[in-house]
Amino acid sequence: MTGDARTAPQPHAHPVRPTQAVVLAGGQGSRLRPYTDDRPKPMVEIPGTGTPIIGHQLSWLAAEGVTDAVISCGHLADVLQEWLDSADLPLRVTTVVETEPLGRGGGLKYAAASLPHPDQPWYATNGDIWTRFSLRDMADFHRERDAVATLALARPRIPWGAVETDEFGHVLDFIESPPSPYLINAGVYVFSAAFTALLPDRGDHERTTFPRLARERRLAGFPLPHGAYWRAIDTAKDLTEAAKELAGTAAAPGLPEPR
């Protein structure tokens, strides 16, 4: 035997942080019509950004160390595939198409079957989320808590004006679109390799798998860092407001620059 055993090459260790991700991009986006009449929801572009939502997500994932992404397609999948074929993508992309509705959990499991490293952790994101924060920090949070699944938590602004009163019922102030007192599921996840087997073949993992993991204290919640931008693009109003927000705050740390 030659060479010093102390300096001999070691077996390749699994990366601590995920290098693979699933993007759920199969929704019809009915509340975004007419923008989604001729394209799937993730192909909608926020005015002023120069890129569709899916393009932003893939760039973000690549910047966070992801090398392989599986995109789960459905509604108008050919339009999304055509864009992927022509785009200069920063990572390797595989697409899968559900031939029949499997539900969110079933769709996630179906897409995860095409991940290149099934024995390693993975990220997942809903295809209608426009956000930018450190996925590496979220992965570290996930590992430190020895969780099977970790979901990002956002505190969105309430779309109505709030009224502040004192204990006697006197109105003290009017607050326009205050932050919600509740955290919500932000649609971005870190999953351990073992999570895939816990997903239903059909149905919604948020009604089955997540509650089970929560009872077992194996589900973690990662609050988005203060100042991180997050918005779910569900309606035409969301598009308009996101365009204003990104145009007005793009110079802030952690936000994508409009093109």
List the helices and strands and how they pair.
Blueprint lengths: L19 E6 L27 H11 L4 E6 L3 H10 L5 E6 L5 H10 L9 E5 L2 E4 L2 H10 L4 E6 L7 E4 L5 E5 L8 E8 L3 H4 L10 H7 L3 E5 L5 E4 L3 H14 L10
Parallel strand pairs: 1-2, 1-4, 2-3, 6-10
Antiparallel strand pairs: 4-9, 5-11, 6-9, 7-8
Number of helices: 7
| Percentage of residues in strands | 15-25%
Which CATH architecture is right? Alpha-Beta Complex
Q: Output the structural class.
A: alpha/beta
Q: Could you walk me through the main structural features you see in this protein, from its secondary elements to its overall organization?
A:
With 259 residues, the chain is an alpha/beta fold. It has a single domain, classed as Alpha-Beta Complex (Spore Coat Polysaccharide Biosynthesis Protein SpsA, Chain A). It contains 7 helices and 11 strands. The strands form 3 sheets. Strands 3-2-1-4-9-6-10 form a 7-stranded mixed β-sheet, with helices on both faces. Strands 5-11 form a two-stranded antiparallel sheet. A two-stranded antiparallel sheet has the order 7-8. The chain is globular.
Please give a quick description of this structure.
By secondary structure, the chain is of the alpha/beta class.
Features:
single chain; 259 residues; Spore Coat Polysaccharide Biosynthesis Protein SpsA, Chain A; seven-stranded mixed beta sheet; two-stranded antiparallel sheet; 11 strands; disordered N terminus; transferase activity; Nucleotide-diphossugar_trans; transferase; NTP_transferase_dom
